[in-house]
Amino acid sequence: MHKRLMLITFAAAAVLGICLIIFALPEKQEAGNGNTAAIPNAPVNATAAETTYKSNCVSCHGTDLQGKIGPNLTKIGAKLSKEQIDAKILKGGGVMPSFEGRLSAEEVANLAKWLSDKT
């Protein structure tokens, strides 16, 4: 009888736990939609963006955005939206490293806006 009571209690706890997980957790966002929706509507701080670029991007993309190891970014805003640029900076891809955790959300958003103006 004691084993049966323990089994029923365990089963009820497991069902309750599964229900809490299913109904209480928020839905997962699709890949690429993580931080890109959180780009603030603040104007571009070009000085800060240039500083971030020089500190993190020059070695691959060149001093004038002309490209070296990485692609030319002089007209990247004509090819990608600021959200796509933001996602690329955060997640990287190909040989480009991820800057998630290395740059703040504000730095990424400002850099993405600055680059998206390059058309």
Write the layout of secondary structure elements.
Elements: H1 2-24, H2 46-56, H3 58-61, H4 76-79, H5 82-91, H6 105-116
Helix pairs in contact: 2-6, 5-6
- Residue share in helix: 40-55%
What sequence of helices (H) and strands (E) makes up the elements? HHHHHH
Q: Which spans of ≥5 residues are poorly predicted at pLDDT below 50?
A: 28-38
What's the pLDDT, averaged over the residues? Answer: 83
Briefly note the CATH topology name of the domain at 37-116.
Answer: Cytochrome Bc1 Complex, Chain D, domain 2
Major sheet? none
Structural class by secondary-structure content: mainly alpha
Within CATH, the superfamily of the domain at 37-116 carries the name Cytochrome c-like domain
CATH architecture of the domain at 37-116: Orthogonal Bundle
Q: Characterize the overall form.
A: elongated
The tally of helices reads 6
CATH class of the domain at 37-116: Mainly Alpha
Number of strands: 0
Strand content: under 5%
Return Rg in Å: 23 Å
Report the end-to-end length measured between terminal Cα atoms: 76 Å
Q: Your description of this structure?
A:
The protein is an all-alpha fold and about 120 residues long. It has a domain of about 80 residues: Cytochrome Bc1 Complex, Chain D, domain 2. Helix content is about 55%, strand content about 0%. Helix 2 packs across helix 6. About 10% of the residues have low confidence.
